[in-house]
Design goal:
Length: about 150
């Protein structure tokens, strides 16, 4: 009986070591949302620089990372096809081609107000995915444990 008890204890310890060591090598997962609410090309590039740097940092560590850029208010100009600076548009397209873990979210409230003011539908870049409210989206992401960055 003692032999069986010792064998069981040893088996449990070995299993714990195997599981513990596999967890030690498991990569961490990071979820980050960046916020842009200014019509400022330098700020837009800052958001894109921060996004690229965060992705490279965590990927070099072997960690998983997901990043969203959320634009609302005047920051929606970053994602407008008619007012987004050409260099910003080019970088966003490059992000789409090079990073599968980055997405761009556009505030539907802002897009609707800008369309009304312009008297026509304001078109967004193809990379932009609509959310009902940029602010509410940021709140929900934070409540879900995402890190929030406002450059």
């Amino acid at each position: 009986m003692n032999f069986q008890k010792n064998l069981l204890i040893k088996s449990v310890l070995i299993l714990a070591l195997v599981l513990g060591s596999s967890l030690a090598f498991a990569s961490d997962e990071h979820k980050i949302t960046f916020h842009i609410d200014e019509k400022n090309e330098k700020k837009m590039h800052l958001v894109l620089n921060n996004t690229a740097n965060v992705i490279k940092y965590y990927q070099n560590k072997g960690d998983e990372v997901t990043v969203e850029v959320v634009a609302y208010g005047p920051g929606l100009h970053m994602l407008r096809s008619d007012t987004s600076p050409k260099k910003v548009q080019k970088r966003i397209k490059s992000f789409e081609q090079n990073f599968e873990n980055v997405s761009f979210r556009a505030c539907s409230n802002t897009q609707r107000k800008m369309s009304k003011k312009a008297g026509k539908d304001v078109k967004l870049l193809s990379q932009a995915k609509m959310v009902p409210s940029g602010v509410v989206h940021l709140v929900e992401r934070q409540e879900a444990g995402w890190s929030y960055i406002r450059p």
